[in-house]
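Researcher: Let's try something more involved. This one mixes different molecule types, so please make sure each is placed in the same coordinate frame as the others.
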Amino acid sequence: MESSQSGRESGSNMKSAAEGVVDWRQYALAVSAAQGYALDAAQLERVVKQLELVSAVAAPLLALELPVALEPAPVFKP
Amino acid sequence: MSGVVKGDGETLHAWQMQDLVVRGEITASELVTQALARLAQRDGELKSYTDVTAQRALDEALQIDLRRQRGEALPPLAGVPYAVKNLFDVTGLPTLAGGHRERAGAAASLDATLVQRATAAGACLVGALNMDAYAYGFTTENSLHGVTRNPHDPSRVAGGSSGGCGAAVAADLCAFSLGSDTNGSIRVPSSFCGVFGLKPTFGGLSRGGSRPFVHGIDHVGPFARCARDLARVFDVLSGLDVRDHACTRAAGSAVEPAVVRAFAEGVQGLPGLRVARLTDYFDQWSGPDARAASETVAKALGAQDELTLQDVAAARAGAFVITASESGQLYRSELQQHYELMEPLNRDRMLAGSLLPASWYVQAQRFRLAFLQQMKAHFERYDLLIAPATPVVATRIGQEWLDLPAGRVPTRPSIGLMTQPISFVGLPVVAVPLPTAGGLPIAVQLIAAPGREDVALAAAAALEAVGLTFDTSGGAA
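Model: All components are placed in one shared frame. Result:
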């Protein structure tokens, strides 16, 4: 599980455990527009790299099957 | 070595300074004047401060000295010079949070809650400290305010995001400092600069009047040169606060006495302490120095077991996703309107965070509860868990990659590999610095059950007592 963090940090077509092959450039174009950004080409490339990084790190989390009863903890009380 | 001078050039701890002021062996004004002189001499190179509040510190010191002259009892931090990460509101200063545009912003009209409480306890505020912009980073390579350099090797970073906090305490430019920790921002600079750091339980200290980064994971806490100072500052600053709805720890249960006892008795004074060293994930991401430090502390504290946590990488991922999502949302308007003025080292990570699918964020929040349940079950069997604070000693300024047993990873997002899974579930941690073979420090995390800062602080003091910890006066040139 840990090795996936370092093994998927290049290339724009990422295979996410949860979502299959993702074209992060297309994703960034679509979602950034929906979020009110107007990215130029250089910004887009940098954001795509960051999405690839987060996707690689997130893979072991997204691969987990969580029980339905498990609640979110947005206001956290240990 | 310089330091607070009592005639023998000794670098003193905060509790010792207060004791000397109470006994009339030094004045608060002298302590502050000496700290300001060291700051003027050393910080041109280190860049740990972004603002110096000299007049305020001198005014506060004078009030302490006048109180003593009147025969009043002095409070627990009387005359102690301290500084705060520049995300805490300080009356009269713009709250920078490491940002560029914020320098031109309005000055704060009210101190942050912890600054108010430190002032009430007699501490004297010397200034505000450098940090990674918006608290998003582990290196304090700040494009506007400069790189905070490591007092032990100026070619290396001080860690982040509270890098100024670690460097200023290590170099004796203040006796203690207050920082924040979302993913490791107290523990990483403690490790790189060789000082002690306390990340309390989530909600353990008020964040009132501090600039948020990730509401759901932000913690605040102290840096100091010994465990006893951490305990005293924690005791003084504790208490509920209407300015922070997540703050759940009431004042009143002092931890300092247990720490004093542990220091006097050493490891022998911790009978029955149940300790385990965390392995697998933590060993895989540890360089040789980190691994050695973890094993040294485990042996010294009589660790009975090695423990494998389940799904640690998922916990780190959860912290990563929540951080990216919440901070990206928090700064979305800034990113839309002032992208060019934002920190180049993290603005794209933040922007990407604002684009992440909501399902990832919710998965992270749901898993958070599961991971906490796992950790709480382990604390049925153990009082303390041990893991390195950082994979390696302080990295070089501009270093792009870390080569670790489990693989090569980019430096800036990865220095928190060891710390993120722990703060993800809000556990209290004391970062204890140890020397390495090469001479630089590296810290170990002493991780306790929620609300048991006393256990971790007492163990830290016991390690000091047996001489295992890094010489925290060594950064004062």
